[in-house]
Design a protein that fits this description.
Helix content: 25-40%
Strand order of the largest sheet: 1-2-6-7-8-9-10-11
Order of helices and strands: HHHEHEEEHEHEHEHEHEHEHEH
Strand content: 15-25%
Radius of gyration: 28 Å
Largest sheet: 8 strands, parallel, barrel
Length: 324
């Protein structure tokens, strides 16, 4: 039998060993199990997940925008090309922005990319509306493609190279976008009551270039989107659908419950109806929220504070640089 002194000494050694083990376990928990504290790049010990969440506005936190980070309205004008021309759309897509454009049909059934049904008069032309038509303005749906193709050019002053550009066709634009890996595009259906033939051409062009998974179909008109959605389902084209929204005198905006039943990917709100409460209610219905058309830091800040997912902007490069 060991003496009482030796037993006491062995007990003290055992307790010391247990104490060292407990200290080691505690240090391991602090460094490894608590996220971010042991990260050399985060000296203040902020959890890595929190750092990521604040690095980008609601795009990553809501997760509703998917891989889209920047939306370039008509391609944007920062690269020195006139809005809604092929070089503007291509430059924006190559920069990583998702490009947005508008489709109308000529009187002889050609799908073209032009912002308004009425072309711009020379006296109204400028950076926002650089396309001018000799002898115009014209109503697109009442004018042949041959007339628009030969008489409409952008202002030379709207281009960094001094060149003028013609109105692009939907076919030519989608062909260019399809050739850019992972490029995405928002194609706004401009007619309020598109015919079945127009919708089928719209969808067939998207399918032709295998862009269904990279295309968002947008419109201000729920009925038009419903028709596109129904025909796209028949063709098994997995498009996403975006409803553009703005206040209209004498009309109530649809409620989030009504919107949730329309098979939408998202809703685009004009800057004057953007609030945190209405965006929160749309997020509750799993709808992505886009703010349009936001071109100033003040508007970008307002969209961020309201927790919008995306902005549609004429200045995609500046917006990307501004993002935290």
């Amino acid at each position: 039998m060991e003496s009482p002194g030796r037993l006491l000494s062995r007990s003290r050694l055992l307790l010391a060993g247990v104490a060292v083990l407990l200290v080691a376990v505690a240090l391991y928990a602090l460094i490894v199990l608590i996220p971010g504290l042991g990260d050399d790049g985060d000296q203040a010990g902020t959890p890595a997940s929190a750092s990521t969440a604040t690095a980008t506005p609601a795009v990553s936190s809501a997760g509703l925008a998917g891989s889209i980070a920047v939306l370039a309205h008509q391609g944007g004008w920062e690269d020195g090309y006139p809005l809604e021309t092929l070089p503007a759309l291509v430059a924006a897509a190559e920069s990583g922005a998702t490009v947005e454009t508008d489709v109308h049909w000529t009187s002889d059934g050609v799908a073209i990319l032009v912002h308004d049904e009425r072309t711009t008069a020379a006296s109204e032309a400028g950076p926002d509306h650089p396309m001018v038509c000799q002898g115009g303005p014209y109503t697109v749906s009442k004018t042949s493609w041959d007339v628009l193709r030969t008489r409409c050019r952008t202002l030379a002053s709207a281009s960094k190279d001094g060149r003028t550009y013609a109105i692009p066709t939907l076919n030519a634009a989608l062909k260019k976008i399809a050739a850019i890996p992972d490029a995405q595009i928002v194609v706004e259906m401009k007619p309020e009551h598109p015919s079945d033939a127009q919708i089928r051409e719209y969808l067939a062009t998207i399918a032709k270039y295998k862009l269904a998974g990279r295309t968002i179909s947008s419109s201000f008109y729920p009925d038009a989107l419903a028709k596109i959605k129904a025909l796209a389902a028949q063709d098994q084209l997995p498009l996403r659908f975006l409803l553009m929204m703005r206040p209209i005198a004498g009309q109530n905006l649809p409620t989030p419950d009504e919107l949730s039943d329309q098979g939408l990917w998202g809703v685009a709100l004009r800057t004057d109806i953007v609030t945190r409460s209405n965006i929160s209610s749309l997020h509750a219905k799993k709808l992505a929220v886009v703010v349009w058309t936001a071109n100033t830091v003040e508007q970008w800040n307002a969209a961020k504070q309201a927790e919008a997912d995306l902005v549609l902007t004429d200045k995609p490069n500046a917006y990307r640089a501004w993002l935290p």
